[in-house]
Amino acid sequence: MSSESEAPATGICSHGSDDVFIRGKSLCNELIGQRSFTEMIYFQVLGRMPTADQAALLDACLVALMEHGLTPSVLAARLTYSSAPEAVQGAVAAGLLGVGSRFVGSMEGCAALLQRIAVAEDGEAEAKRIAVEHRAQRTPLPGFGHPTHKPDDPRAQRLLELAKSRKVAGRHVAAIEALGAAVDATYGRHITINATGAIAAILGDCGVPAEIARGFGLIARCAGLVGHLYEEHQNPAMRAIWEAAEQAVPYKAD
Questions:
Q1: Would you say residue 25 lies in a domain?
Q2: Which residues make Cβ contacts (< 8 Å) with residue 248, sequence separation at least 6?
Q3: What is the pTM of this model?
Q4: pLDDT tens digits for 73-106?
Q5: Does residue 82 sit within a domain?
């Protein structure tokens, strides 16, 4: 981070009359046709190219995050599109506003917890401490639990399998597994590691800082929202959603 006395500057992009340069690399000669979109996301955000195995795991995480049905963010996007179909970007933006600490973006909170475990002298003890803290405070544990995927989230299982087979799994994957064991012991029942929990661990082992982890959820969900908006354009569901909401939440006088 630069000091207040230094002039502001960017290290991401510059351009001239004959090319664009992203973090020092020629867009036309070194990036277009040479690197995948997933590699470019990592490079643009972090300033270095991922390894082939890291790129494969990042790609798997983006695929896993892209779609999960008529979620709150999808409903917000579809309803906004039905009101302003001339502004696809507005509908996508409405959906992205719902990527928060409870839906889609919960990998950020989980990543911060995994970092605590990863740097602790005794990781198992720190995992136990986190589980006890959340149970005592009755607060949601980011990266754990799912209303549909029980007893385990198949997306998380697949992603963690890939991380191990690709040799990307490291201290953060070990941390999510330690936390999972501590959660089960503390709560006295099995609570699944969900997709965002697995993704938090994998992003951490790919070198993605916790404070930007949610950004990968935004990128993936943006693509999913575009698909939903095109379906809304072809086969509108807004009226059915609106009517279902009115029936599910009837007026009740005070």
A1: no
A2: none
A3: 0.91
A4: 999 999 999 999 999 999 999 999 988 877 777 8
A5: yes
